[in-house]
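Ligand: flavin-adenine dinucleotide. Inputs:
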Amino acid sequence: QWAYELGHSGEEPVNIPLHACEHFYLLTHPLKEPLASNLPTIVDPDGRIYIRNWQGGILSGGFEKNPKPLFTEGRNQLEIQHLQEDWDHFEPLLSALLRRMPDLEALQIMQLVNCPESFTPDMRCIMGESPTVRGYFVLAGMNSAGISYGGGAGKYLAEWMVNGYPSENVWPLDLKRFGSLQSSRTFLRHRVMEVMPLMCDLKVPRWDFQTGRQLRTSPLYDRLDAQGARWMEKHGFERVKYFVPPGKDLLDLDQSKTFYKPDWFDIVGSEVKCCKEAVCVIDMSSFTKFEISSTGDQALESLQYLFSNDLDVPVGHVVHTGMLNEKGGYENDCSIARLSKRSFFMISPTDQQVHCWAWLKNHLPDDSNLTMEDVTWKYTALNLIGPRAVDVLSELSYAPITPDHFPSLFCKEMSVGYANGIRVMSITHTGEPGFMLYIPIEYALHVYNEVMNMGQKYGIRNAGYYALRSLRIEKFFAFWGQDLDAFTTPMECGREFQVKLEKGMQFVGQEALMEQKQNGVYKRFTMFILEDHDTDVDLWPWWGEPIFRNGRYVGKTTSSAYSYTLERHVCLGFVQHFDEKTGEELVVTTDFINQGEYEIDIAGQRFQAKAKLYPFSSLFTQRRRKDEVELSGYQRE
Ligand SMILES: Cc1cc2nc3c(=O)[nH]c(=O)nc-3n(C[C@H](O)[C@H](O)[C@H](O)COP(=O)(O)OP(=O)(O)OC[C@H]3O[C@@H](n4cnc5c(N)ncnc54)[C@H](O)[C@@H]3O)c2cc1C
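Predicted complex:
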């Protein structure tokens, strides 16, 4: 609890978003036959209670559905010193305890204790260095699991403080996954009321918090909402999952909480189909956007050192590149457009806003001629995906945008409708043709309306992130935060071509990558197509499923999706090679990947899978050609 207060007590505030709830537990006198001190803790998730030994008696508490956050009356810390017992509030937990262990009724209760217990906005603890104050390390917000986490969390934080980084990927716990936006007391109070009961609930895939929502929204939010958008949240930003077509039972869809085939299957399928055959628009405004510029060559020189791909490209080109650490691992994976000789526009994943900013601030030279600005809020981003995106955009702008004039990975400022200065990039993050439009926010509604009106004759419709996910996974595109992290390198995921190793330039991570190039890699990003998996009846893969090669465990999946093109599930994940006798890690070669028989284990059931190191690009090209012929039929729909 105090971490929040302490963080705000300095001149430069450190935001540590956690908030305490009142936590009730009762203590009994010892049993006639005192309980053994090594009695395991018993947890009854249905009853929302835990039971453990306490001096030969019972200590039992729980996580009620209606928690009481502290500071409810806006009172100060004194509230903590005067927490009262509340038997009415504890009654459901007491009933659950007596239902589970009826004999306890005879036990004499000693005390009902009320103490503060801290929770975080995503139920994961908070650790790491502050993004704003160097050397300020945090380990807090244990979500009532501080004893279990204590040892590991302490170890990784100690490594972090001593070596500058922990020995495992702890991004899900990193303080930098949060920013000031999660630090409002009202937000925290509402959110922890949802978090605490979750301690006993089953979390299904694609599950979202319901509290603290509509904090960051695109200017198009209301327009999209009125058209049936279903929302999810990332870093406080509302993003569309999919659009419910008119006439569908909305209530039913909201309840699609399952590990099996979800209700949105057909809806997302039709959005994917439209991306492949006509044109879709996805609002991707949540992307993190920075502008970096300088008076001379400082911006180029600094970025060349901090990024692994060559950024000295002609003005108007977009470069896909990693921002690597000394070990060659991805601290960020982003697209950088060269706007002029001395200015760059950088697009990163949504949850990079704090981490990437802090990394660049710490690594860029302290030079008043070099400036960096977070322009995330200034631009609405629309992704126009599909073979007809070019037609829509051509009609709305007078600039030629056919592939001859506007090749892939190109960026140009142009007017769209009445609006000027729209940054258009020929990139869609899906492997499909189309454009990203970065629109100054005051023009967002105008450009969206123009695109939708003009798009009518090309079969345009709205789409959401689930369609995007299916498209990118079937193309074998890795995403930072899901597939890539600070412990995966470009060499391990087939991206050597995005690294300037041969150009004689120095950059962070270069030595580590050189070594991998010479000696090989110990894990390899691989695509799996499930063979005997029945999408309708079998449990779906989500992520984290074990991968078996010739019956032996070799790694885990990092993301998966149903491919509506291949009509199969696709899983992405890393394959390792362990010596059969010693368990020692060995180099993973292409032959090793290609010569194995694979299975993916979904909740204990294994499914055969075909491993691929390269996407089925030929298959997708063929399909697209065929679809072009069928396009006229699509327009009549
Ligand atoms: C009844 C109960 C049962 C639990 N059971 C489990 C369990 O089974 N498994 C599990 O993993 N977790 C369990 N927890 C949660 C776990 O105890 C906490 O998550 C963990 O103790 C939090 O660790 P901490 O170091 O952040 O805070 P704390 O353990 O609360 O440590 C904070 C320390 O700071 C001291 N302090 C406070 N203010 C000041 C000040 N102004 N100056 C100096 N010192 C100060 C306090 O006295 C205290 O020693 C349980 C908690 C409770 C209440």
